[in-house]
Amino acid sequence: PSLVVAISGVVIPMVTFYYVGITLGFPINTAVFYGLVFAATSVSITVEVLQEYQKVRTKIGTVILGAAVADDVLAVLLLSFFMSSAGASSHLVMQVGLQILFLVFLVFSVKLLVPKLYDWSQHIPYFERETFLALLICLTWSLLAWSVGMSSVIGAFFAGLAV
């Protein structure tokens, strides 16, 4: 249910603000940009409202929070793809392909690589090893995101989700 709500939470504002932009006479790129910007939600406000009504740990609270997080992830990804493809020409397919490969790498890294890195780091006699490892992952993923034409913030965002 969270994914359906999240997709709706991205598609509805995106389409609405796209048509508002077109109606107001903005170029297509600007209208798409407005739609993508307004597709992102504020998870912190959602959490505060759910906490106020003591619904965070209920089934509906879980669905709402899952949808809010998934909604933000989808909006950030779409905005990143849009921004990286703006002004691109013949290499657009290759660039989007690299970005998709990067996202696949992130999924596998979260499942396989990050837990192994944390297990391995337990043997290092350094008192801030978790912080060091989190920063290393954040900076590495930021650099990788930048190298495939995405904003480095995307890499940092997913590193934050991973750790």
How are the secondary structure elements laid out?
Blueprint: H1 2-23, H2 28-37, H3 43-52, H4 59-85, H5 92-121, H6 129-147, H7 152-162
Protein name: Cation:proton antiporter
Organism: Streptococcus pyogenes
GO biological process, one term: sodium ion transport
Describe the structure in brief.
It is found in: Membrane. The protein contains seven helices and no strands. With 163 residues, the protein is mainly α.
What does it look like?
- The chain crosses the membrane at residues 7-26, 62-86, 92-114, 134-161.
- Keywords: Antiport, Ion transport, Membrane, Sodium, Sodium transport, Transmembrane, Transmembrane helix, Transport.
- It is a multi-pass membrane protein.
- This is Cation:proton antiporter.
- With 163 residues, the protein is mainly alpha-helical.
- It has helices at residues 2-23, 28-37, 43-52, 59-85, 92-121, 129-147, 152-162.
- The chain has 2 domains: 1-87; 89-163, no CATH class.
- The protein has 7 helices and no strands.
- It is flat.
- The model has no long low-confidence stretch (mean pLDDT 82).
Provide the domain count.
Answer: 2
The chain-level mean pLDDT equals: 82
Assembly category: single chain
Count of DSSP E strands? 0
Give the topology string: H per helix, E per strand. HHHHHHH
What ranges have pLDDT less than 50 throughout 5 or more consecutive residues?
none
Shape: flat
Sheet with most strands: none
Please give the count of helices. Answer: 7
Q: Radius of gyration in whole Å, from Cα?
A: 18 Å
Q: What is the distance, rounded to the nearest whole angstrom, between the alpha carbons of the first and last residues? A: 25 Å
- Please report which band the strand proportion falls in: under 5%, 5-15%, 15-25%, 25-35%, 35-45% or over 45%: under 5%
Structural class: mainly alpha
In helices, the fraction of residues equals over 70%
Transmembrane segments: 7-26, 62-86, 92-114, 134-161
GO biological process, one term: sodium ion transport
Organism: Streptococcus pyogenes
Domain Cation/H+ exchanger transmembrane: 2-163
